[in-house]
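Predict the 3D structure for this chain.
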Amino acid sequence: MPDGREYRLIDADTHINEPPDLWLERLPARYRDRAPRIHGFDEGDAWVLEGVADPINFGLNSTAGMAPDRMQPWVRWEDVRPGGYDPAARLQEMDRDMLDAAVLYPTPRLSHYLIATKDPDFHLAQVRAYNDWLSEYAGHAPGRLGGILLLPNRGVDQAIAEFERAIALPGMVGALVGCYPHGDLQIKPEDDRLWRAIADAGVPLNIHVSMVDEMPRTHTDRIPGDIRFYDAPRRILQFIWGGVFERIPELELVVAEVDIGWVPYMREQIDDRYRRQALGARLDLPAPPSHYLDRNVSFTYITDHYGVRNRHAVGVDRILWSSDYPHVGSNWPHSWRTIAADYSGIPPAERDLMLAGNAQRLYRFDTR
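Done. Predicted structure below.
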C-alpha cells in the first residue's frame, strides 16, 4: 500500500453512487438537455433517463449498514451514504470496515442505460463523462481505489480509442464490457483487437453479473438475482468456444458478483460437452475448455460458504472476495465477521490469496 502496509483485504466488487450533476456538468452543451438527471417524486428521488419510461430509484444501492427491515427502494439523495460519491468519505468507511482497497463498478441500471444508448455520439459522450468522473474519484487514492472504466460499444475502433484514453487516467485498473464492441451480445473475430489492447495494457476485462444490449426490465417484474444464474457461464463460453483465450492467452477475464459454487460443475460439463460434440459444432481447441477456464477466468463472490469450502475445485488463485458495498448484498461495516465464518480452518496462504493477493495481482494495486 502507499503507506507501506500490506494488503490484507481487497474488495474486488464495490460500487459508486453517481452524483446528480455528473452528466449535467460534464456532457457537451448540445447534450445537456438529454443528460441523465435526478428528479424528486413523492416517493423519493430517482434517475430520469431519456427513452426510459420508469424512473430508476436508488435506495437499495445505498443500504450498507442497514438492517433488512429498514431498507427501502425509494430514498432522497441526501440519504445516500457519502462514500458512494465522495472519495474522502469512502476511505473513512473503508477504514471502519478494515478494508485496504476497493475495485469500483458503476450502478448497474445506470450503466445498462449508457450501454444501451443507440445514438453513437451521445453514447460515447456519456461514457467519456462517466470515465472522467470515475478517474477523479479513484485518483483521490490510487493505491486504495481502483476504477473499472466503461467501454463504449459502437464499433471496435471507438472502444479501443476510449479504452486507451481512459486506462491512462489516474486510478483506472480495468475495463467493463457491458456488451460487445458492435453493440450486441455476439462475440466477433474483429473484437480481438480490443481484447488484445486490454491484454497488452496488463489489466483485466470485467463482466459485472451479465451483459445487456438494451435497457433491461425493471427489478419489479423478475425474480431477484435471477440473471446471476445463467448469463455469466454463457459469456465465458463465448470467449472459450470462440478461441479468444487461445489467440490471446494473456487476457484476464473477471466475472463479478456471480459467486463460485457453480464453477466446478461448469468445468466438468464443458469438457464433457466438448469431447462429445466438438466435431459437430466445428470447434477445434488445442486444449480442453477447462484449461482456459482455469488459466484466464476469475470470479468474485460475496457470500458463498459452499464455494469457499470447495475452493480447490474452483481454483484458489481465481477467487476474489467482494462485499458489493454499498448495495444490498453488503455486510459493511462487519465484513470480517462473515469472512471469519467462511474462512475458519483455511490455511493462511490460501486465505490471503482469496482475500487480497489475487485482486492485488490482477488490478496491480501495488504498482499504480
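Residues 10-18+82-363 form a domain with the TIM Barrel fold (CATH 3.20.20.140).
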